[in-house]
Amino acid sequence: MASYFDEHDCEPLGPGEQPNHFLHLARLLLDSGVAALEGQMFGEKKAPPASKEAVEQLPTYSLSGTDLGKPCPVCLLEFAPDDMLKAMPCKHRFHASCILPWLQQTNSCPVCRHELPTDDTDYEEFKRQKGRAKDREARIEQLHDSMFG
Ligand SMILES: [Zn+2]
Ligand SMILES: [Zn+2]
Asked: What is the set of domains in the chain, with CATH numbers?
């Protein structure tokens, strides 16, 4: 009489053999590896300094009543009456002496990451590509909603 395994056309696991989870693991590693790579390409690009022009165009404020006593987000000291302040396009305000050196390092608001234009053409192109990818995702979602929503 034929054995169970002959009838069911499969091999019993040999001694020390494990059911094959390896493929699952490999797939998992591959996925996270790809995500890390994409992060490198799209997420982690180091932002260049803000363009000189953009920084020069930031409006300068002398202190008004509403800012008096508020802490500067960079140095955490309260704004004092004769401080010169700079306002970012996002309306966040800083000591000119705090935000100007910051913007020589990177192009974004220290509070909300609002980005100023840069002189770095590679980076500007990267931002355009990223924006386009986002647009495309949004459009695909809209399409999906209109088809299945
Ligand atoms: Zn400050
Ligand atoms: Zn901001």
From this structure: 46-144 (3.30.40.10)
In this structure, which ligand is nearest to the CA of 92? Answer: 2
Residue 21 has pLDDT above 50, yes or no: yes
The continuous run of DSSP H or E covering 104 comes out as none
Neighbours of 109 (CB within 10 A): 21
Q: For residue 10, give the amino acid letter.
A: C
- Looking at the CA of 94, name the nearest ligand: 1
Q: Pick the most confident of 10-24, 52-66, 85-99.
A: 85-99
- The answer, yes or no, to whether residue 43 has pLDDT greater than 60, is no
Using the mean position of ligand 2's atoms as its centre, give its distance from the Cα of residue 144 in Å. Answer: 34
pLDDT in tens, 124-142: 999 899 899 999 999 989 9
- For residue 24, the CA-to-ligand 2 centroid distance in Å is 44
Residue 124 near residue 50, CB atoms below 8 Å: no
Backbone conformation region of residue 91, classed left if phi is above 0, alpha if psi is from -120 to 50, else beta: left
- Tell me: pLDDT of 116 over 80: yes
Residue 97 backbone class (left: φ over 0; alpha: ψ -120 to 50; beta: rest):
alpha
Residue 81 and residue 147 in contact, taking contact as beta carbons nearer than 8 Å: no
